[in-house]
Amino acid sequence: MIQNYEKAKQILTQYHQEHLLSFYDELDTMQKQQLVNQICDIDFDQIFDLYEASKIDEVIPPSFIEPLSYKVKAQLTDDEIAYYEAIGMDAILHSKCAMVMMAGGQGTRLGYKGPKGTFELDIVPKKSLFEIACDRLKDFQEKFHVTIPWYIMTSVYNDTATRSFFEEKNFFGYPRDSVFFFKQSQLPLIDIYGNLILEEIYKVKEVSNGNGDVFTSMRQGGILDDMKMKKIEWIFFAGVDNVLLKIIDPLLLGLTIRHHRVIGSKTLLKKNAEDKDWIFARRNGKPSIINSCHLTDEMKIAKNKDGNYLYREINMLAHLFHISALDKITQVSLPYHRAFKKNTFVNEEGMKQVPESPNTFKFETFIFDAFSLFDDLELLRVEEEEEYAPIKDFNGAHNPELAKELYEKKYHLK
Ligand code: UTP
User: Fold this and answer.
1) Tens-digit pLDDT profile for residues 62-111
2) pLDDT recorded at residue 50
3) How far apart are alpha carbons 9 and 18 in whole angstroms?
4) What region does 215 belong to: left with phi over 0, alpha with psi -120 to 50, or beta?
5) How far is the CA of 364 from the centre of ligand 1 (A)?
6) Containing domain of residue 20, as a range?
């Protein structure tokens, strides 16, 4: 006897999603119950509200946009760098810092089977993205005898595989009691006809809901409490795929502390005015990252009195938050954005189909939307060759071959 079958049917009729039960008669009892339970748990109102809201293109009038000030690392003197780094190092040496690595993404562009962090860079010997990140944390152990707690956000999809990988690799030699995993939430996808899709004939496809979910997931997973217990004050946040990432950066930390801010972020210079990257700016007076399409042509090339561009700082997903900022952020809900992505689905014949191009809308929150809860943030522009070589896809600008080349160059492996 399948519990709640009638309820599930009623929900699907209400939202015109009856196709999700198309293969119900072919399922065994366990699969039937699994599917019915999942349907009853999905918040259809939320997903369709997000879908409807995302159809409206956002307009930000240029008069609502102002520049955000930033420091350029290459323009700081050696003495300035030493001064700020000493402040940052003091906090690091007093065990006040932790690292949160966001590794819950789907990695749809790379299309690699398995968690993206387990993808191996083709250096000698081969190293996974997780191990490359771990090497940087180990530098602090070796040079300064500090073990930085490493918190890793996984997804429902890759949590087990990620944990097993760490076990298999013996945590790359990092103390296992300093590595913590927590899972983020997920949401259904919507196809171009406005329908949810099936991943299996007994399962609705749900995927991770963006790196902005990190805050809620940290609270729910007890991570914030754990950090407080450890008296951690500063938390570096980054993605899993940048092989040049300077994970714990005393300079950004020192600048942020010295300037009495609770958030810091590293930026890169957007090379061409017409590139599509989103840029750092004030929006309605608050720090934000906005789509460059909202800038006028004059704004795109405007410079300050020092000759630095006003609106050319782009996000490299290397952020710093004070623990008090995290407390504040977890009180609110971040807005959702819509992304169009390639996702395998079960077709009308009940067969799995791999699309050739993007076919589904995914709803995600972004970590940077938390910036606007604060009046200011510390921005530090760094050099791309030094700190940014992410792996996003095999054929695009951020491919594994290039990442390998830049990694070997930085660490003098060739
Ligand atoms: P991206 O936005 O590049 O996404 O994530 P992705 O999942 O790696 O790849 P695509 O877009 O599907 O091809 C930047 C970082 O944020 C993490 C990713 O794991 C990556 O480290 N992320 C992204 C999450 O942790 N959760 C998410 O829901 C999305």
Assistant:
1) 999 999 999 999 999 999 999 999 999 999 999 999 999 999 999 989 98
2) 96
3) 7
4) alpha
5) 10
6) 1-41
Q: For residue 390, what is the DSSP state?
A: B
Question: 235 and 300 share a domain?
Answer: yes
Check whether residue 27 and residue 146 sit in a common domain: no
Q: What is the pLDDT of residue 76?
A: 98
d(CA 405, CA 414): 9
Q: Are 204 and 37 in contact (CB under 8 A)?
A: no
Tell me the per-residue pLDDT of 378-389, one tens digit each, with 9 for 90 and over: 999 999 999 999
Burial 112-128 (b: 16+ CB within 10 A, else e): beebbbbbebebeeebb
SS in 3 state form for 36-92?
HHHHHHCCHHHHHHHHHHHCCCCCCCHHHEECCCCEEHHHCCHHHHHHHHHHHHHHH
CATH of the domain at 188: 3.90.550.10
Protein residues whose CB sits closer than 6 Å to any atom of ligand 1: 102-110, 116, 153, 184, 208-211, 239-241, 317, 341, 364, 392
* Residues 36 and 46 occupy one common structural domain: no
Candidate of 211, 362, 363, 392 to mutate for ligand 1, largest count of ligand atoms within 8 Å of Cβ: 211
Instruction: Clarify whether residues 54 and 175 are in a common domain.
Output: yes
> Environment class of residue 81 by beta-carbon count within 10 Å: exposed (0-12), middle (13-18) or buried (19+)?
middle
Same domain for 169 and 100:
yes
Size of the chain, expressed as the number of residues it contains: 414
Determine the straight-line distance between the first and last CA of the chain, rounded to whole angstroms.
Answer: 65
Atom of ligand 1 nearest to the CA of 393: 13
Cis peptide before 125 (omega within 30 of 0): yes
What angle separates helix 78-93 from helix 250-258, to the nearest 10 degrees?
90
- What six digits make up the tokens of 394? 């095999």
How many structural domains compose the chain? Answer: 2
Q: What is the CA radius of gyration of the chain?
A: 23
Q: How far is CA 103 from CA 168, 178, 183, 350, 360, in A?
A: 18, 17, 10, 31, 21
Query: In this structure, are residues 226 and 381 in contact, taking their beta carbons and an 8 Å threshold?
Result: no
Its pTM surpasses 0.90: yes
- On average, the pLDDT of the chain sits at 97
**From atom 21 of ligand 1, which residue's Cα is the shortest distance away?**
239
Same domain, 24 and 50: no
Do 25 and 60 lie in one domain? The reply is: no
Q: Are residues 67 and 134 in the same domain?
A: yes
pLDDT score for 56: 87
Nearest protein CA to atom 22 of ligand 1, as residue: 105
